Amino acid sequence: MAQQETDDYDYVVVGGGTAGSVVASRLTEDPSVRVAVIEGGPSDVDRPEVLTLRRWLGLLGGDLDYDYPTTPQPRGNSHIRHSRARVLGGCSSHNTLISFKPLPSDWDEWAEAGAEGWDAASMDPYYDRLLNNIVPVDEKDRNAIARDFVEAAQEAVGVPRVEGFNKEPFHEGVGFFDLAYHPETNKRSSASVAYLHPFLDRPNLHLLLETWALRLETAGGRATGVHVRAEDGTETTVTAAREVIVCAGAVDTPRLLMLSGVGPKRDLEALGIPVVHDLPGVGENLLDHPESVIVWETHGPLPDNSAMDSDAGLFVRRDPAAKGPDLMFHFYQTPFTDNPERLGYEKPRYGVSMTPNIPKPKSRGRLYLTSADPAVKPALDFGYFTDEDDYDGRTLVDGIRIAREIARTEPLASWLKREVCPGPELTGDEELGEYARKVAHTVYHPAGTCRIGAGDDPLAVVGPDLTVRGLSGLRIADASVFPTIPAVNPMIGVFMVGEKCADLLTRTTPGDDA
Ligand SMILES: Cc1cc2nc3c(=O)[nH]c(=O)nc-3n(C[C@H](O)[C@H](O)[C@H](O)COP(=O)(O)OP(=O)(O)OC[C@H]3O[C@@H](n4cnc5c(N)ncnc54)[C@H](O)[C@@H]3O)c2cc1C
Q1: Distance 159 CA to ligand 1 centre (A)
Q2: In this protein, which residues make up the domain named Glucose-methanol-choline oxidoreductase N-terminal (predicted)?
């Protein structure tokens, strides 16, 4: 296999995904700074199946999806597959682009966890910098049944109607989401569309597509580059004169670190991976937002207009002492029975779903390697529903009950013919809990596996400046650095991590006295 050294770059960004696109775009604003982006997937330019938001579901499980399984989940659903996009823009190129600025309580929780400088007041300006077109679901995309869900939820739960969830912090409310899209064409305003497409002609921005980072190169405790394999099998070392920034996401960032010998010493030794730096927190603190599902058959077909078939949602605060919402729902204009079907439920021809979701789950998991072979997928043990007092499971049961109240309320009630799953005969806490956990799915929010923390936190992987502890020339910027998961959908938080990382890098650029 051919081996060669490439030109020197100032920065090498691993992963042209959500955060990586932001970092690369911002760094190359300075024409004297040379940046290489190592991206495992192809370009999304001129690919309507990627760029059209409403086609998102068609991408899951296909050739642009790394498709990670989970380990068996004794108290949950062992069949969950975690989609991770293999394309420029990363998961922002195949997700639903629901856009929530994390709530002030989410950022303040980070600061309390040791992420100094990541409190709400410090993070706010990064939201204002975002280049994405973030707009409420357009009037023409507001389906009649989703409108009636919003009205019924207001009435049944007594929460306010919200128009523009990002206008001000909220504890509860129902309404249409803000999305990062262009309503006139349904085109994504993904990380690649907003941060890379307008700048592809920058001579200092070098995208290495269909190129896989096999390991980080280090010398004397400093990251010097990235060893990569191109589509044709050629192996190369891409060197970084200043820094390597790993933006491979919450699954592939800890995976790459561990394959490079950076991680829990004992685990690495057991797999025969030479230890470069013992960092026990790599892969720990695996977080997600699990949700369950309740499905109704409708009397007939629904109107077809929509932005992406899950355009509205509800936030509830059951515990008045909670700092933010403690129960969330997506409303799907489709019968989402993939998981219930495994338990014997049928899929109605026409239907809708409500999906109770846990904004602040208490269960924690762990990601680890089972082999030193970089081709072997890592093990993802989310530990779903393993928290001691079953807070997570109980939250879903509360959610099913609230969803039923909404379904009984007009103007939604008259659309619905019958509850298909779990079915009206299931009413007890225990049986609802069992159902809710067994059909639980993910909304694909893995995070936390290389968390930010203070210097005395033994499981912190990066410090508040995103540098990897104990090594120099190496930072991480993606969903893996989240110390805790925001109560809302996390993508905008990831964009803001990218913006803050770029800011930290440019502020420390030699010769820049900002
Ligand atoms: C189906 C789906 C729907 C979602 N919906 C929403 C939503 O509506 N709203 C919301 O807030 N969040 C949503 N999310 C979550 C959100 O998209 C993610 O949290 C976020 O995009 C993660 O960004 P990231 O930068 O951490 O990783 P990614 O965007 O996944 O970027 C990682 C990039 O690194 C590349 N890569 C990985 N390993 C390597 C390697 N070794 N070598 C080279 N390249 C590599 C990948 O190809 C990818 O491009 C959804 C996620 C999915 C999958």
Answers
A1: 32
A2: 249-263
Of all protein residues, whose CA lies closest to atom 21 belonging to ligand 1? 91
In angstroms, the CA 89 to CA 455 distance is 32
- Per-residue confidence (pLDDT) for residue 508, from 0 to 100: 56
Let me know: does 15 contact 39? Beta carbons within 8 Å.
Answer: yes
Tokens 């969330």 belong to which residue?
Answer: 328
**Cα-to-chain-centroid distance, residue 378:** 17
| Annotated binding-site positions for FAD | 87
Q: What number of other Cβ atoms are within 10 A of residue 44's Cβ?
A: 27
Q: Are strands 262-263 and 235-246 parallel, antiparallel or unpaired?
A: unpaired
Nearest protein CA to atom 50 of ligand 1, as residue: 95
Output the CA 427–ligand 1 centroid distance in Å: 37
pLDDT tens-digit readout, 234-257: 999 999 999 999 999 999 999 999
Question: Can you tell me the distance from the alpha carbon of 166 to that of 150, in angstroms, rounded to the nearest whole number?
Answer: 17
Rg value, the chain, Cα:
22
Q: Closest Cα to atom 1, ligand 1: which residue?
A: 95
Please indicate whether residue 36, judged by its CB atom, sits closer than 6 Å to ligand 1.
Answer: no
Q: How far is it, in rounded angstroms, from Cα 209 to Cα 203?
A: 16
CB 248, CB 17: distance < 8 Å: yes
Report how far ligand 1's centroid is from the alpha carbon of 312 (Å): 22
Among 368, 392, 393, smallest CA distance to 378 is for 368
**Sign of the four-CA dihedral 480, 481, 484, 490:** negative
Q: Give all domains of the chain, ordered by start, each with its CATH number.
A: 1-65+81-137+188-288+446-514 (3.50.50.60), 141-176+290-360+390-439 (3.30.410.40)
Residue nearest to atom 23 of ligand 1 (CA): 18
Distance 436 CA to ligand 1 centre (A): 26
Contacting residues for 73 by C-beta, under 8 A, at least 6 apart: 80, 381, 382, 383, 384, 385
CA distance 202 to 208: 14
Beta bridge partners of 356: 329
In 303-452, the DSSP E strands lie at: 312-316, 327-332, 351-357, 366-368, 379-381, 416-421, 441-442
d(C-alpha 119, C-alpha 115), whole Å: 8
The string of pLDDT tens digits covering residues 69-90 is 999 999 999 999 999 999 999 9
**Residue pLDDT, tens place only, 169-184:** 999 999 999 999 999 9
Which ligand 1 atom is the nearest neighbour of the CA of 446? 19
What average pLDDT score do residues 106-126 get?
A: 98
